[in-house]
Amino acid sequence: MACVTNNRAVIRWVADVDQLWPQTSSSATRPLTVHWAPNEAVQAALDRLSQDEKAKVLRFHFTSDAKMSLASCLLKRRAITQICEVSWHEANVTLDSNKKPCFVPEREATGKTIAFNVSHHGGLVALAACPGSATKLGIDIVSMSRADIATVARQGFETWVRTYEAVFSDRELSDIVNFVPPEGCDPQADIAAKLRHFNLHWAMKEAYVKMTGEGLAAPWLKDLEFLNTRTPRHANELSIESEYGEAICDFEIYLYSERVRDVKLEVQAFRHGFLAVAASDRSIDFLPYTFLSLEEISPT
């Protein structure tokens, strides 16, 4: 599948790092980067990065983290080369005043700019990007882990949620804590449903503050609220064979108790348990998410 772009839309690409660089040994539960990096395919991908990018990837101790860092670097370069029409070696990423990754052209040859944001979790790396630097974008991808389920089972859901009181408003905390899972859930499925609803709130807030560039340090974090929420259903819940489940955007955003209407935010369910949230500070089309192969991300 080709990497599609659109002059008036946000592209959304996803990389599954375990499909890009399959695990070749099962001898370790968490393989180390030092054993993974010498692989020929990995070296070929690393050679497409700058020295600083390569050093950043190789600083990660565990292969799982290094893979996601490498995929993130490649996705950003791929988007920049395609949208801004610059060469691969010119597609260098820097940081803006908020420490948010951005692209500043070294020359004015094409006159084209780009807005983008990247998120990674659980072996998936997601990128949102569009032409022009005026648009602000944020993206976040999350999934629950067995460790989270075990912690909630041990501590209790409300106790676990209350550790995030600095992030959520009182109304959001009440919505999360009092969420009622579907009837007929066994205890583990009950916890999983509650965690998915928590992840929904977390990812929406993360995508929004990444869009603004202020991140979770934003002084208005607790004054940003997402109300009338529901968790999108995954493909298995819809009884369909697909990477993608439901996409929703029919919720309400409030900041300082005032309704926010100039931000577009969409939640997409992936596979089993993943949620991705994309946010834009203006009304703009979001293209469907597309899983890319290594050849599409890093064409030679």
Please state the CA-atom Rg, rounded to the nearest Å.
Answer: 20 Å
Number of helices: 10
Mean pLDDT: 92
Could you list the spans in which at least 5 consecutive residues all have pLDDT below 50? none
In whole angstroms, the N-to-C terminal distance is 16 Å
Give the number of DSSP strands: 13
The largest pleated sheet is described as:
4 strands, mixed
Entry keywords:
single chain, four-stranded mixed sheet, four-stranded antiparallel sheet, 24% strand
Could you write a compact summary of the structure shown?
With 300 residues, the chain is an alpha+beta fold.
How would you sum up this structure, described in words?
The protein has 300 residues and is α+β, with helices and mostly antiparallel strands. Helices cover 33% and strands 24% of the residues. It has a four-stranded mixed beta sheet with strand order 4-5-1-13. A hairpin with a 5-residue loop joins strand 2 (93-95) and strand 3 (101-103).
Topology:
Layout: E1 9-16, H1 17-20, H2 33-36, H3 40-46, H4 51-58, H5 63-84, E2 93-95, E3 101-103, E4 114-121, E5 124-131, E6 137-142, H6 146-155, H7 157-161, H8 170-177, H9 187-212, E7 224-227, E8 244-248, E9 252-255, E10 258-259, E11 264-270, E12 274-280, E13 285-291, H10 294-297
Helix pairs in contact: 4-5, 6-9
